[in-house]
Specification:
- Belongs to the branched chain amino acid transporter family.
- It is found in: Cell membrane.
- Keywords: Amino-acid transport, Cell membrane, Membrane, Transmembrane, Transmembrane helix, Transport.
- The chain crosses the membrane at residues 36-60, 72-92, 112-130, 142-162, 182-202, 223-243, 271-292, 304-322, 328-353, 365-387, 399-418.
- It comes from Flagellimonas alvinocaridis.
- The protein is mostly helical.
- The chain folds into two domains: 3-334, Amino acid/polyamine transporter I; 353-423, no CATH class.
- The protein has 17 helices and no strands.
- It has helices at 3-17, 20-33, 37-62, 67-70, 75-91, 93-106, 114-130, 135-161, 174-183, 187-205, 211-242, 253-265, 269-299, 304-321, 326-352, 360-381, 405-422.
- Helix 3 (37-62) crosses helix 9.
- The longest helix has 32 residues, at 211-242.
- It is globular.
Length: 423
């Protein structure tokens, strides 16, 4: 694998990760966190950079499909997990990209209805998806450089043109809030979905490449993409903090980003922002629909018809859901994320640690524990407030909606010690 392949793959990974949530979530975090923007950045990047990077490293080791991530728990569980994740992906984050594009890139320039934006948007998505073998080149060579150049303009102008008079923060738990807000990027889920897209794309372009050379390429590309995501997120959060006293505290995510771009880029802000939003959102939608279509095709003996039908269904769902308000889609997504995200994080970690520490029994015990201790947070996100107070005294981090973390860690250690002792 040469440097050109590494560059294109790194850009493609970055672009497939960097979508609607990645663009609109960080500025508001910085805006609310003020002088503690750096602490929020650490939390956000833990769930939106470190965990997704581990997911790519797991893909480099497995070089299979998302089914391989959970098959050690049981084949049935893996099938159920895969279908739930792909259903969530095409029903929420993919349509959200069209909704964000309309609110920030189309509506300010043209007074056109949301349905028209969604239809045109997903027609283009479908064209990219059916040209499956060209996804890596199109995304890596053409779209990502445009995203990075426009972001660089915003960061540089904000850094050198405005005073660093950070406001007092208004957050109770900035670090844990950063972690939970990172859930809304869907990047951990994206890692298991688009990671498979990258692997299939590499296999299509380099059929003769060895397992180890592909493993090295995916790992290096993952690290470079992760570094790029960290710098972009930190820059967006910092930029939001710089403008902490420039907007109404109740400003929406999309309006804040529009306001920041207006103050940094001037009268041409809407043009630049339109390009940025359209590019960032579009690449993510392409990755999600392609990944879902790849998975379904694999279930039907590599049927091209199954691939195209799935792509059509994904795009139709995108048109229907893409007409909803961005904040509404984010609110709807929260309950699903509070349950599926902890499971995804645990599966990623278990697929990265040495195999001797992650036997099928360890997988089953740790994943089962994670599901049990995620239920209170899931019920709480649905509005059942009492569910979040089931065991706050004896389960650490429950107040931070991370009550599953330490039980999963304890069970992981205990199950390995038990197996070592009995084995």
């Amino acid at each position: 694998m040469n440097k050109k392949s590494l560059t294109v793959t790194s850009f493609a990974l970055f672009s497939l990760f960097f979508g609607a949530g990645n663009l609109i979530l960080p500025p508001q975090l910085g805006f609310k966190s003020g002088e503690l923007w750096w602490l929020v950045t650490l939390g956000f990047c833990l769930s939106a950079v470190v965990i997704p990077l581990l997911g790519i490293l797991a893909h480099a080791r497995l070089q299979g499909t998302m089914f391989d991530f959970a098959k050690k728990v049981s084949p049935v569980f893996s099938w159920v997990y895969c279908y739930i994740v792909y259903a969530i992906a095409i029903a929420l984050p993919s349509p959200r990209t069209a909704s964000v594009t309309h609110e920030m890139a189309i509506q300010p320039l043209w007074d056109s209805p949301a349905w028209m934006t969604s239809v045109l948007y997903f027609v283009l998505v479908y064209i990219f998806v059916v040209n499956r073998s060209k996804v890596l080149d199109l995304v890596g060579k053409l779209l990502t450089p445009g995203i990075l150049i426009i972001l660089l303009f915003i960061f540089v102008i904000a850094t050198f043109s405005f005073d660093f008079n950070f406001t007092a923060h208004s957050l109770d738990h900035p670090f844990s809030l950063g972690i939970l807000e990172g859930y809304q990027t869907f990047d951990a889920i994206g890692a298991v979905v688009v990671g498979a897209v990258i692997i299939i794309s590499i296999n299509l372009k380099n059929k003769e490449a060895s397992f180890e050379s592909k493993k090295s390429l995916i790992r290096k590309a993952g690290f470079l993409a992760g570094l790029g995501l960290f710098l972009v997120y930190a820059g967006l959060i910092f930029t939001g903090a710089v403008f902490g006293d420039s907007f109404d505290p109740s400003i929406s995510r999309t309006a804040l980003l529009s306001g920041i771009s207006l103050q940094t880029l001037g009268n041409t802000a809407h043009l630049f922002l339109s390009l940025l939003v359209s590019l960032a959102c579009f690449t993510t939608a392409v990755g999600i629909v392609t990944g879902t279509s790849d998975f379904i095709r694999g279930q039907f003996n590599d049927s091209v018809l199954a691939y195209r039908v799935t792509a059509i269904i994904g795009c139709v769902l995108g048109v229907l859901m893409g007409q909803l308000n961005v904040d509404y889609i984010i609110a709807v997504a929260l309950p699903a994320l509070m349950l599926i995200y902890p499971i995804t994080i645990v599966l990623i970690v278990l697929n990265v640690v040495p195999e001797k520490l992650a036997s099928p029994k360890v997988f089953r015990w740790v994943v089962g524990t994670t599901i049990v201790f995620s239920i209170p947070d899931f019920l709480g996100s649905l509005g059942f407030g009492l569910a979040t107070n089931l065991s706050p005294e004896w389960v650490p981090l429950t107040h931070y909606q991370l009550g599953w973390v330490l039980p999963a860690l304890v069970v992981f250690v205990a199950s390995n010690l038990f197996q070592k002792k009995t084995g």
